[in-house]
Structures are given as structure tokens and as C-alpha cells.
Design goal:
heterodimer; A: 113 residues; 6-stranded mixed beta sheet; 54% strand; B: 113 residues; mainly beta; 4-stranded antiparallel beta sheet; globular
Chain lengths: 113, 113
């Protein structure tokens, strides 16, 4: 079974600084998808960024980028120029082609003004 | 357009009672997922519907949990003889297809007294 591990239960960053959230996963498959979701206190899960495993280029969405290391099964999220609105729980997720989706336990990000 | 909606937003029930949680996916989305999120935890997969195929029930924690999806649209998650450990936020998500992102509803917070 696939597992997703987020080793940082909590992280803190100063406003305007950069923070990196870690995620590792375990799979025997070669084709899959990886996601980072944000969950603010409203509970609404919001997709931040996605990465197809067959793509070598790291995905980027404005201030959010990933460092995808397929051989190491690592998928970290970098948030640049952190804003107060970035404070939330961040979940790393894995999905295979059978739509089997697994989430990590989450990292709570605090942004200090 | 309308996103995924869930009702009720909050439900308080007594131990031993049955509850029904409803999910209205985005129109046209063929895939529908139910997850459970316990306090401070990640998302636990419960069940997945894809079109007219038999649902993937591999995540249901016990036979007290069941779900149906009528007409390929609205889904109801039923928990019979609720227990205190069933207290959690139940999230529903829908997706246009196998390789697309999941769009989440706001969740139903279930409290079993």
C-alpha cells in the first residue's frame, strides 16, 4: 500500500520569508500524481499544486513550487514571500492511476507578521 | 459555478443513533469520494464512486458505515449505531475523471455524545 509521510507536524515562517514543507511517499508504481492541498480553518480543502510523476520539470504556481525527487520519493513544497493568508494545514497527497488516493497527516503552517 | 456542497455542516447525535450525511458533487463529475478527518489528523479514505462502476469500499472502517450514490450524482454516507469514535469531519470530494484533481466540499462535522 502507498503511504505518505509528512515529518513536520508544525512549521513557522516569518511573513515575506520562504518556507519548505517536506513530504515523502512510498510506492512501487512508476506512474502517479502528487498534490499539495491547503486547508484553512474554514475546513475547505484547496488544491495548491499538482505534479505528474512522468514530468521531470518541477511544478510551479506563482509563489508555490515543488521539488520533486522521484528516485528519492520526495515531494517538498516551497512557499516564497509567505503571506498571512498562507497560514493553514498543508496536506501532501498521492494518487495512482486506479484513483487510490492517500494523504499525509498534514503540516500546520503558522505565518508570523 | 457551484462547488461541492455538503449537508448538514454540523451534526450532533447521541451514541447509538443513525446519521445520514449528504454530498452534492459538482455537476458532471463522474468520480465522488468520501473521507474522514479526525481532529488534528490527515484524511482517511472511506469510499470512492466512479460512474456506474461498483464502488471501492475498501476504506470503510466497519459494517456500520455505508454509502450510496443515486443517479450518479448525490451521495449519502450513512453511519449506523454511531459511536463516540465516529466523531470527525466527513469530507466529500468530486472529480471530473480519473486523472483530474479532486474538488472538496466544506465537510460535515459529526459529534457523537
Amino acid at each position: 500500500a502507498q503511504t505518505v509521510t509528512q515529518s513536520q507536524p508544525e512549521m513557522s515562517v516569518q511573513e515575506a520569508e520562504t518556507v519548505t514543507l517536506s513530504c515523502t511517499y512510498d510506492t512501487s508504481e512508476s506512474d502517479y500524481y502528487l498534490f499539495w492541498y491547503k486547508q484553512p480553518p474554514s475546513r475547505q480543502m484547496i488544491l495548491v499544486i499538482r505534479q505528474e510523476a512522468y514530468k521531470q520539470q518541477n511544478a510551479t504556481e506563482n509563489r508555490f513550487s515543488v521539488n520533486f525527487q522521484k528516485a528519492a520519493k520526495s515531494f517538498s513544497l516551497k512557499i516564497s514571500d509567505s503571506q498571512l493568508g498562507d497560514a493553514a494545514m498543508y496536506f501532501c497527497a498521492y494518487r495512482n492511476n486506479n484513483n487510490d488516493m492517500r494523504f499525509g497527516a498534514g503540516t500546520r503552517l503558522t505565518v508570523k507578521p | 459555478g457551484a462547488g461541492v456542497s455538503q449537508s448538514p455542516s454540523n451534526k450532533v447525535t447521541e451514541k447509538g443513533k443513525d446519521v445520514e450525511l449528504r454530498c452534492d458533487p459538482i455537476s458532471g463529475h463522474t468520480a465522488l469520494y468520501w473521507y474522514r478527518q479526525s481532529l488534528g489528523q490527515g484524511l482517511e479514505f472511506l469510499i470512492y464512486f466512479q460512474g456506474n462502476s461498483a464502488p471501492d469500499k475498501s476504506g470503510l472502517p466497519s459494517d456500520r458505515f455505508s454509502a450510496e450514490r443515486t443517479g450518479g450524482s448525490v451521495s449519502t454516507l450513512t453511519i449506523q449505531r454511531t459511536q463516540q469514535e465516529d466523531s470527525a469531519v466527513y469530507l466529500c470530494a468530486s472529480s471530473p475523471g480519473r486523472t483530474n484533481e479532486q474538488f472538496f466540499g466544506p465537510g460535515t462535522r459529526l459529534t457523537v455524545l
